[in-house]
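Incident log, structure service

09:12 report received: a user says their structure output differs between two submissions of the same chain.
09:20 pulled the input from the user's history:
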Amino acid sequence: MNPHPYQGLDPDTLIGAVESLGYLADGRLLALNSYENRVYQIGIEDAAPLVGKFYRPQRWSDAAIEEEHRFALALATEELPVVPPLLDASGHSLHRHRGFRFALYPRQGGRSPELEDLDNLRWLGRFLGRIHQLGAARPFEHRLTLEPALLGDQSAAFLLQGGQLPLDYERRYRDLTETLLRIIHERFAEVSYRCLRLHGDCHPGNVLWTDQGPHFVDLDDCCNGPAVQDLWMLILGEPAETQRQWQALLEGYETFRPFNPRELALVEPLRCLRMIHYAAWLARRWDDPAFPQAFPWFGSHQYWQQHVASLEQQLAALEAPPMFY
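09:34 re-ran on a clean worker, output below:
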């Protein structure tokens, strides 16, 4: 069995990484909620704690990580509420220690956003409009572009080839994903949109709220794609409420940038791609001991029953008119 990617990331390594950049750690370490990478709050002598993000080996190239950092720093320069990495004396944000690549961030806490409040959605919309205004200046060169083949085709193929699916669900899953992905490819081909640099994973867990308002965290999945990708995951609640929520979010967004309404046809395809990709992500990471511990239900017969049922519901959603208009 191959060693898992974070074997060797022990407290001495964490403290040594921080101290290699001239900080004096006080020995306090707190693991934060992160699985793709490893993220720790690290106490510093006579100063506020720092947050250390240790990148999963072999996931991103150095160029892709540095492009993420430059995007965050550019947004912060425009006084947009993101948390950019700290720069060392030479202006570098990506560092190495004992074989691990890492970045340091200032600690910036907050609470979960209250997205039932329409004023909060307008606030978020204004910031996302400004983020996309800057994101439209040029595309990422080293980051991924959100597309059905990457998130859907490759993910479904991995699950079908990897042996995770119970035999009694394999044919049903294959037929269902073939139908879903055919419709999704057609929908993406039909909709004309401009690719922007995006946050890419703008769900409520990546938004923290303080008395000064929201700030966005975790640009690890920033990518090129349609603007609606950064909007649809912020709409929660019952169908009767989603239209009002969408209108409030869009009202704030269009204060700074017009929204292409044709992109609404991509909301359900994007939701479906996220569902397929999430299952494949768990399967791809199953050799990391943190995943069986955090997601013990994955791979069970009940999990696949629910997953396939959810995809069947998504097929109906794909064939229905857009939820927002």
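09:41 both user submissions now match this output. Likely a transient worker issue. Closing.
09:42 reviewer note: The mean pLDDT is 95. The two ends are 51 Å apart (CA to CA).
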